[in-house]
Q: What sequence folds into this?
């Protein structure tokens, strides 16, 4: 089990949750959560409970994540946070979220979102020019990986999440 904390650039806690460690390599940490996981959203002062199966891939040396949510009706959603490479310990993952995200509501159809939030926070937190450049470089890298179907956007994690859900809930499609 690892606790995950997403932070804003000023190190304020944005949101946090816990998930089971499925796999750890030199390149990534893969977490799995069953339906019923909770997420404490500190920025909104709210707690959410999710009814989906979830895989979260934290790249150890890259400034992006991939989260896949498999809903009870079989719908798969993807979400990629752009940020700083995470700090990972035996118990925790800390990831600085730099606002822009790529989301896929339909398989293979990714869309860049939250650019306005990035622009606002760039001023609010005083993002250095090098950081702004790094964010857009990371966005381009994620898009390239999606286009060329490279890990973690190669479909392997989607298949793995479906297998996990089917193993736990045999009637799951």
A:
């Amino acid at each position: 089990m690892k606790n995950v904390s997403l932070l804003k650039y000023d190190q304020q806690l944005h949101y946090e949750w816990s998930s089971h460690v499925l796999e750890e390599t030199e390149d990534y940490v893969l977490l799995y959560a069953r339906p019923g996981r909770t997420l404490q959203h500190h920025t909104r002062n709210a707690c959410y409970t999710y009814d989906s199966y979830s895989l979260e891939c934290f790249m150890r040396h890259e400034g992006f994540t991939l989260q896949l949510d498999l809903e009870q009706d079989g719908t798969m959603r993807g979400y990629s946070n752009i940020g700083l490479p995470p700090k990972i310990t035996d118990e925790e993952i800390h990831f600085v979220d730099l606002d822009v995200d790529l989301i896929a509501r339909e398989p293979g159809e990714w869309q860049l979102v939250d650019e306005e939030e990035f622009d606002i926070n760039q001023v609010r937190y005083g993002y250095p020019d090098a950081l702004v450049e790094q964010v857009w470089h990371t966005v381009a890298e994620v898009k390239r990986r999606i286009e060329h179907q490279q890990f973690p956007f190669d479909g392997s994690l989607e298949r793995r999440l479906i297998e996990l859900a089917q193993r736990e809930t045999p009637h799951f499609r």
In short: The chain is about 25% helix and 45% strand. The first strand starts at residue 2 and ends at 7.
